[in-house]
Amino acid sequence: MNKLLLFALLLFTVTSNAQDKSREKIKTLKVAFITERLELTPKEAQEFWPVYNKYEEKREALHRKRRTELRNKFKDTGSLSEKEAQNLLDEYIKIEEEEEELDKVYLKEVSKVISAKKTLSLMQSEEDFKRQLIKQYRKNRGGR
Known about the structure:
Layout: H1 2-38, H2 42-74, H3 82-113, H4 116-140
């Protein structure tokens, strides 16, 4: 029994470290992709990345909050009372509104450190990066 537990713990640790390394690699690729696409000057980059990183941290926190507090409960909606379901729906709407407000504040803030044109290019670059990442994932998995 102890060997099985030790093996499971080891497997979890290896998987977790691999995921962390993959996330770090993706983040590094994203930074390079955006920097190249936006053609940031050194001054722009110095002002842009702290704003961008702060936004990304807040956005990730909201995504984690949604996953941990809401998504798991969605799977068990059959056992919820109508009041509990309404509370869950209200919480979901609240998180969506928080994300929308975060996006508004971020876009205003980032457009102060890079031009409006580069801000629009940033938005497109993020979408392009996601598409490229998904395409690469499918290719590596033997999909389309």
